[in-house]
Amino acid sequence: MIASHAHRFVFIKTRKTAGTSLEIALSRHCGPTDVVTRISPDDEELRAAAGAVGPQNDDTDPSSYAHMGARRVIRVIGREAWDSYFTFAVERNPYDVVASSYRYSARKPTFTKTFAEFVRTPKRMERLALNERLYRMGGRVVVDQVYRYEDLPAAVSDISARLGLSLELPHAKQGSGPHYRELYGPGDAEIVASRFERTIREFGYEF
Predict the structure, then answer these.
(1) Which InterPro entries did the record assign (predicted)?
(2) 164: alpha, beta or left, given left = phi > 0 and alpha = psi -120 to 50?
């Protein structure tokens, strides 16, 4: 999460949506009073190499952290700032989100689950499903804009224009693998469709 008082914006960071890359790009323009939350040590190295501001002013009350939702951000910066700043998040096709999370987890030597087992692990699905709640309050979208990951270049251009900033995304947490559909077996897509029903419906996503 970044709350920039210098440029009057709040970036709500969702999971598996190029959030770290966008966060690094945005933090290159942050001022000394802006709230910038921590990312992984490897990504902090990328951020430093990009000449960006590192984690700062995150010892708030309540404390600030990477994947914090709108309700908590409002408590940190105040309703007046929230209402007057440009607030935004990024969403991604849930079928792809789940596949991306699986591929990332499967890189660990100790990880042994199949994709079918992964999809049927409620705790993991619940964590990924938190995305839609980060930018909602009471079920309603409360940020000014939810961009689609699939349209990321256009989203970056729009954010740049709105904020008057030149944004260039680094390639953080890149991964490679088969198209997400190739991971899905019998019943897998139905489980994802049920758990992410609202996001799929509201953003028009398909398998």
Answers:
(1) P-loop_NTPase
(2) left
Residues ≥6 apart with Cβ < 8 Å to 163? 7, 9, 29, 86
Q: What is the pLDDT of residues 19-64, one digit of tens each?
A: 999 999 999 999 999 999 999 999 999 999 999 999 999 999 999 9
Whether residue 181 contacts residue 96, with contact meaning beta carbons closer than 8 Å, is answered with no
Which fold is adopted by the domain 2-203? Rossmann fold (3.40.50)
Domains of the chain by residue range: 2-203
Sorted by sequence, the CB contacts under 8 Å of residue 113 that are 6+ apart come out as: 105, 106, 121
Closest to 191 in 3D by CA, of 100, 91, 99:
99
